[in-house]
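Ticket closed. Logging final result for Elongation factor G.
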Amino acid sequence: MRTEPLRHLTTPLATVRNLGILAHVDAGKTTVTERILFTTGTTHRRGEVHDGTTVTDFDPQERDRGITIFAAAVSCAWDGHRINLIDTPGHVDFADEVERSLRVLDGAIAVFDAVAGVEPQSESVWRQADRHGVPRIAFVNKMDRAGADLDATVESIRRRLHPVPLVVQLPIGAEDGFTGVVDLVRMRSLVWADGEGTVEEGPVPDALREEAGRRRRRLEEAVAELNAPALEEFCAESALSAPTLTAALRELTRTGDGVVVLCGSAYRNRGVEPLLDAVVAYLPSPLDVPAVRGTHDGVEERRTADPEAPFAALAFKVNATATGRLTYVRLYSGTLEKGDTVWDPGTRRAERVARILRVMADRHERLERAVAGDIVAVVGLKSSRVGSTLCASDAPLVLEPPTVADPVVSVAVEARRSTDTGRLASALARLVEEDPSLVVRTDAETGQTVLSGMGELHLDVAVEKVRRDGGPEVNVGRPRVAYRETVVRGVTGLVFRHVKQDGGAGQFAHVVLDVEPMDAEPGAAGFEFRSSVVGGRVPQEYVRAVEAGCRDALAEGPLGGHPVTGLRVTLTDGSTHVKDSSDTAFRTAGRLGLREALRLAELALLEPVAEVTVTVPEEAVGGVLGDLAARRGRVTGSAARSDVAVLTATVPLAELFGYATRLRSRTQGRGTFTTRPTGYAAAPADARVK
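Final structure:
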């Protein structure tokens, strides 16, 4: 185990690791990151979240609130390898930050609380990593806490996340007595002396030798079941050598067939060195991940992580300030040098790279060049946004951008002084540029500026950022949720004729529409358009125009102007005029025809709902359950954990505003809760309108 100064490290791609830290809020992600930076010699003092001295939580709001809000990138070196690390948020309101980070990462460390096990947001970020195919290793943190249990946490990982956990360590001591681990791969002990921060390697303690032998055997058997070369050696030798076991664990991690599990206490700096060794040993380099896929003129192309290949990179984060823009990019192929001109196929503009920076949270180190596999920040791009592809002009390519979730909560914002309206508009534009999950629009009926996001905290952070970044003083309205409307009972054979004759060429379109729910369950999402017209009564180009018109009509439903979802529209008949029919006429007929059909159909309001996990003292359970019921919550589970109860309920999002204050008052400040959006559900029956 050794460190090297990053500036002297010139590593090939095989010695690069691009990874993220994923976890539920308060599981210890930022502390793990801080200890990694300290252990690798990148920083010379240990930053603490509660003191506001961490490197990655450098934003004033993060330090005030004690949580990670913005994904922060750092770089360090360990044992001849360069590690590009992104500390991601754990709060559900900032899940889009995690999504954008996972899009460009090759691996991840999933951090779990040794007492709480798999928590709701742990499960969410794990599923996000599954969607992106990101290999992971697991680190069970807080082994020094009362009630810490490695085996129980591993079982919750197996039960709730469904991987095959491959535990490679055995803790030495428990709770306050946790002092080290037994490395089951190399059968040695690693002990951290109190206050020293340095690891002492030795033989397996006599008291743990038998238990370590059993666990090593269990690990060998699990690996042999999943890996063919390991099975061959196991059958021949009845055991696995350390090199074979390490190679098999690396392959199982890369394919996702197994998850290596380690343990420690980041706060006490115990277990960080073996965690770094596991990152180097098991997580993939840019050479180990599949070639990135993109398109050019509708044809799929693949680019390997080759510095000599044509340049291609993806912008995944933007810091837009009044003094300039910092664009974070992941290079997938080719080489980028300071002063290069790159092509943005999305905006069809050439951009000049003025500077290339190695990022250390809010500090930067200037680079002359970056190569495939690097994660760096560039200065000088004027129009590129989050999700933009940057490529060589003579080898254009468009990479798939990160997905952006639809916002679920909105507030009206306005400048307190009318003279600051322009400043507010500029500040909101910078916000949206940095965070695509925020949406700014003007309400057509009220003329208000509406800011929409992923949750109450998300919007609170956004508004506070406007204030702190020199923006104007802002008045904020009460949060509102994003309702939807859906079809409960449709209409059949609705006839609509669009005829317009006001001189010159007229407009004529005749359509017959059937409208029905997409699914038997209220709240089924989506929109489907079909055509059953026969005999060419409506030409195909006009059918496409009718579909476009129907999609236009979905923007505002008749109940309250909310978007309409969960319906199927079928064009069954129609007719044309030899002179007056056109795409425009049929698009108008589709829009107005579907609006009329929706007015005649039976509709229902849909409201966003969230899964709420509440942790409260046992004596406060009754009051909390009553409060959840008053908020139209449906309790779906409960569990006892030492002296607290963990309640799970599904609650309409609109009922959760102000819940944090209410919960604190009912539990004397000892209760906590987390939320996770779970989609939409039908609003109460009295909200239905026929």
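The longest helix spans residues 206-226. No further action required.
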